[in-house]
Amino acid sequence: MPLFPRTAFTSNSSIAISVTHNPSLNNVKTSHDVVSNQALALKDGGQVWNHRLEDPDKVVILARQDRRQWKSLWGGTTPGSMNTPRTLIIGLDGATFTLIEPLIQAGYLPTLARLMSQGIHGYMRTWPNMNSEAGWTSLVTGYNSGQHGIYHLAIRTQHDYTWRLASAADRKKDPFWCLLSAAGQRVGIINVPLSYPADPVNGFMLSGMHTPDIHSPGFAHPPDLLDDLRRQGIDYIIGVLRLADLCRRAPQRALQAAQHLVDVRSRTILYLMKTRPWDVLMAVFAVTDILQHFFWPDKDVSVENDVWTPMRSIYQQIDSFLSEALEIIDENTTVLVVSDHGFGPAYFGKECLSHLFARLGLLRYRQDGPQSKSRWLKNLLPYGRKVVPYWLRSPLKQVLPRLYGRALREVEFPSVDWSHTQVFVRRCGEQIYINLDGREAEGIVPSKEYAPLRERVRDILLNLTDPTTGHHVVRAVHWREDLYHGPYAGQAADMLVEWDYDVLRDSLCYRTAETSIIVQSPKRFDRDRRVAGLHRPQGIFIAYGPHIKRGTTVANVSIYDIAPTILYLQGHSIPGDMDGKVLANIFTDERLRHYPS
Ligand SMILES: [Zn+2]
User: Fold this and answer.
1) What's the rounded Cα separation, in Å, for the pair 299 and 532?
2) Rg of the Cα atoms in the chain
3) Protein residues within 5 Å, CB atom, of ion ligand 1
4) Which domain holds residue 374?
5) Rounded distance from Cα 535 to ligand 1 centre (Å)
6) What tens digit of pLDDT does each residue of 527-574 get?
7) How do residues 177-230 score in pLDDT, each as one tens digit?
8) Span from the CA of 135 to the centroid of ligand 1 (angstroms)
9) Is residue 359 assigned to a domain?
């Protein structure tokens, strides 16, 4: 039984039709002047097709402007009773209300202000993901990392303290676009991080950050999409990692490069929105994350101040894009604006914790000479960034994965003496591993000591304070089995630290009756990275549309809830084992009455 009302058509001689309900007709782009109740006569390049429609609800109406270009008739010119539900999802990597709200108050973001005031908004809980790869994968699948297998860009294959680069091929759960596509809905997916290789969806797809190269096979579906963009004068790029590079080496040129990225991305999205049929379209801007890492503004400074210029201008540019996108969509389209994690000032949890563990004898550093092999490996990545042209880096990483993995290890764990290390720290200090005998390549902790050691480390963490203010810096310490479940839960860190990000900066104090230790992150580290901002657990969620409550806020939104909510919006069933739930409290009562979640 169809979930949505049947669509009745009026026809005239300028209407063209494309059928979405039958995969065998996916590539038929055709025009004709007859749309009758149950039968269609389709004409394509002189060939006549006759097909009986089983489900006329899924017919999409397009107008043809010339031989190549098809324009959707949805929106203001939609035939009156067109009723197909549609969802537009705009992802802003790392976007945070901490920046958006002051910019709205100063009048810089009228479109986001409108979406929030005429729709619903609230913080989105992204913990324990906290990075783009795990975050977006959880957001588009509705599952935790233990189920979909992505914890970060780097994947552990062997327990030898090295990691390899992940791709969408490592994602063990289908994103919502695969489910909808299999059900005959048209999807358009643009620039979602870790979506390479692109899925052969019913619609179109351009993979995002961590695509080796836009000329790599599997970047675009269908493969001629790039040619189509080029014919429109759009020289498509992904470009965010290159931007990060520029932020480090030549920050004065970074803003201009970021604006160019947003311009290319916006024109691509708008062009595809207008010219290709879609029921669900998702596009991500990753530039917000990169710029926030390097140009995070001091929140106590006015948004008019120069330190705000990069973030103010990029959010403004994206806001203008949103305004144009809203003009294209019709009254049946729901708009979601989401981020994969939040953002805030930089902190140095990993560096401080590693030094503290060293002082407590839980981790040991080797006494390397300057000529040692590990020092050479450690310098390989920064040196490579200086001398290897950007276009060659991805191919090199693919060709020399072991060398790359070992170089990453030396950057991540510089000079760690594994044979005397019980505990080690990854990422920004959120992930703590036990150097377990029998699991890690040089593990020394016997399995019977695993539980007592975790308890001991938790006690240490909960004791930590800021040396200046005396405030505790850790809110909670979680065991991995309490956060993750599923066949890949064993790849998680043994313990996860929930820092108090309002307190944690670049030093820690550990004080007991017997000892008092203060550790400071090395200043050189700070200067090398030029990092001003880092991720936070609270992302953003904004929803706006015909079935969404207006002018209110929503609490308890989880990153896992987005995929099931999109499926619900599109009338698709929700897999029973999804970790997320439909965000029923964002919908109007009328909608819930007609379509219970
Ligand atoms: Zn980031």
Assistant:
1) 12
2) 26
3) 289
4) 366-415
5) 6
6) 445 789 999 999 999 999 999 999 999 999 999 999 999 999 999 999
7) 999 999 999 999 999 999 999 999 999 999 999 888 888 889 999 999 999 999
8) 11
9) no
